Amino acid sequence: MNRDEQVRPDPGLTLLALYDTALPEVYGYLLARCGRKALAEDLAAETFLAAVQECRRTDTDPTTGWLVGIARHKLADHWRALAREERGLHAVASSQEPDTDPWDEEIDALLAREVLGEQSPLHRAVLTLRYLDGLPVGQVAGILGRTERATESVLARARTAFRHTYLRRTGGDSA
Questions:
Q1: What does the pLDDT read at residue 112?
Q2: Neighbouring C-alpha atoms within 13 Å toward the C-beta of 119
Q3: Is residue 79 part of a domain?
């Protein structure tokens, strides 16, 4: 270990300084998407734990946007775990098909999240900002650094790609 490594301050301290300002944004981001306070709190805690580990492992300069990105990944991991659990439960219960499945809406939401995850990063970003965050097209354009017309065009292509993938996954008619 050389002398510079011995005196390097704990990068977690930089993250600690950011914690008070970033926590409301990270928690708000998660709560808006999962709708459950306890889950949002758990995912926010996992986000900050992962951020501390990443800061100590690499030379990363933490920002609120970076933390929201980690939160997005933690939420996606949670949704994937739910989907795996649902598939397992569905496989066990497949021998006894009820007339109506109360989980249809939940499975549909999980499928929509999976389909969103399969989209290109630009399409995923524009669909998330517009429909999950509820931002108007003008604000989405500003965030993405595009003109409003270009953003409307990307949004139209993203909706078409999402619809095509969703219908393909559900066995619906893609025409």
A1: 85
A2: 26
A3: yes
User: In which domain, by residue range, is 157 found?
Assistant: 101-175
113 and 92 fall within a common domain: no
> What residue type is assigned to position 87 of the chain?
R
Neighbouring CB atoms inside 10 A of 87's CB total 12
Residue 170 exposure: Cα atoms within 13 Å on the Cβ side = 18
As a whole number of angstroms, the distance between CA 83 and CA 167 comes to 18
CB 26 within 8 A of CB 20: no
DSSP state of 94: T
**Of 78, 97, 116, which residue constitutes the final position of a domain?**
97
User: Same domain, yes or no, for 90 and 124?
Assistant: no
**If pLDDT is split at 50, 70 and 90, which confidence band does 134 have?**
confident
The first and second tokens of residue 120, run together, are 């290109």
Q: What DSSP state is assigned to residue 133?
A: S
CA dist 79 and 34 (Å) reads 9
- Say if residue 128 is in the same domain as residue 142: yes
